[in-house]
């Protein structure tokens, strides 16, 4: 719960594009959503301490790290996104989720002063990828400089 899925189709010979899309929309995606919701309910009802720990650790690392890899940033940001999503769609309330909600009300996004939101986290996912960092910086960056710039961007957004 909270990470990304990549869905691909290995068999396409003899199947029309519209049939493939219909299969995804009507069978595969609803099953994934059902599994995801069951996992979230399990986390909330039986493992809320684990959920809180993941969200709290993610927030602490993201708000304070000075070097962070793409992989670690995506992993930790997905925990924040999970907490916000569970609050918005399930009404979930735990100490860590409530802290995230306070950031929403306080306007934790330095760029737009709109607060921390799923949209803000989605934007961070994109802005902190290696190619985006280098494009926005205007030149190629070695991995250490990318990790430092990524951490700086995330800190500025999460700390307001």
UniProtKB/TrEMBL annotation:
PROSITE patterns in alphabetical order: PHOSPHAGEN_KINASE_C (PS51510)
Residue ranges constituting the Phosphagen kinase C-terminal domain according to the UniProt record: 1-38
Keyword tags: ATP-binding, Kinase, Nucleotide-binding, Transferase
Record Gene3D superfamilies: Glutamine synthetase/guanido kinase, catalytic domain
Source species: marine sediment metagenome
InterPro entries for the chain: ATP-guanido_PTrfase_cat, Gln_synth/guanido_kin_cat_dom
UniProt-recorded Gene Ontology molecular function terms: ATP binding; kinase activity
Alphabetized Pfam families for the sequence: ATP-gua_Ptrans
Name the UniProt record assigns to this protein: Phosphagen kinase C-terminal domain-containing protein
């Amino acid at each position: 719960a909270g990470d990304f899925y990549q869905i691909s189709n290995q068999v396409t010979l003899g199947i029309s594009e519209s049939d493939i899309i219909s299969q995804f929309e009507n069978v595969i995606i609803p099953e994934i959503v059902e599994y995801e919701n069951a996992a979230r309910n399990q986390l909330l009802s039986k493992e809320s301490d684990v959920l809180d720990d993941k969200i709290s650790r993610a927030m602490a690392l993201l708000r304070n790290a000075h070097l962070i890899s793409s992989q670690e940033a995506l992993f930790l940001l997905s925990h924040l996104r999970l907490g916000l999503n569970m609050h918005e769609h399930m009404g979930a309330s735990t100490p860590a989720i409530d802290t995230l909600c306070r950031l929403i009300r306080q306007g934790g996004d330095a760029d737009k002063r709109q607060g921390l939101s799923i949209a803000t986290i989605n934007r961070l996912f994109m802005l902190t990828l290696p190619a985006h960092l280098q494009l926005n910086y205007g030149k190629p960056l070695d991995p250490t400089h990318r990790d430092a710039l990524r951490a700086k961007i995330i800190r500025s957004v999460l700390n307001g």
